[in-house]
Amino acid sequence: MTNAKFKRVVLKLSGEALAGEQGFGINPAIIKSIATQVKEIVELGVEVAVVVGGGNIWRGKTGSEMGMDRATADYMGMLATVMNSLSLQDSLEQLGIETRVQTSIEMRQVAEPYIRRRAIRHLEKKRVVIFAAGTGNPYFSTDTTAALRAAEIEADVILMAKNNVDGVYTADPLKDKNAKKYSELSYLDVIKNNLQVMDSTASTLCMDNDIPLIVFSIMEEGNIKKVVLGETIGTFVRGK
């Protein structure tokens, strides 16, 4: 173990981050970049779990707004996260990093079912574990999945990698040029001010279990390593 500040982390990636500038689908160059950054922290001795969204392929909320049954739309979104997870697994394994995908919905031909003790054992063996298919339940986001899995595996922190912002702001910096970036705040601030860092269910779960969160940009090479080494980038959201 080197100077890494955290022993075990949950890396939360949005589906949109995997699409890159094309905005849809999976961009192989982006996936490779993320895999390379994950490899860097694995080589520091950090135990890494990953939760990937599916918004680059399908959003359950969008389907619901179009008139689709919400549960059906959400299950489709879970399948989208599996596709992203398998893609990331392939990129990591091409770099020589042992990786396991665990799904909340059983599909044994392509991945392991999620079993908490098995996931922890993989992490202890320095394998990257990718949690796919959300919580396995409709009406819950992958943000909530990250919070839930972080609590279950007793992760030190959730690293929320963003593709369009480099932290938490008082308003959307893409729409409001006067928006100011927070360097640190609490989950209570996030919920009270409706800052849209993650949904309220995930925020409450993190707050109740005292799980810190670091929000930063994934688009700059090496940022994941910088965060793990304790460099002050992005926004730190404290538990209690």
TrEMBL record:
Q: Which EC class does it fall in? A: transferase
Pathway annotation from the record: Pyrimidine metabolism; CTP biosynthesis via de novo pathway; UDP from UMP (UMPK route): step 1/1
Where do the annotations place UMP binding?
54, 74, 135-142
Q: Which Pfam families does UniProt cross-reference here? A: AA_kinase
Region ranges (Involved in allosteric activation by GTP):
20-25
* SUPFAM superfamilies, alphabetized: Carbamate kinase-like
Q: Can the keyword Hydrolase be found in this entry's annotation?
A: no
UniProt note on regulation of activity: Allosterically activated by GTP. Inhibited by UTP.
**Keyword flag Ribonucleoprotein:** no
Q: Which residues form a coiled coil?
A: none
Domain Aspartate/glutamate/uridylate kinase intervals = 7-217
Localization terms from the record: Cytoplasm
Job description of the protein:
Catalyzes the reversible phosphorylation of UMP to UDP.
Tell me which NCBIfam families the record gives. pyrH_bact
Quaternary structure note: Homohexamer.
Name of this protein: Uridylate kinase
Q: Which organism is it from?
A: Pallidibacillus pasinlerensis
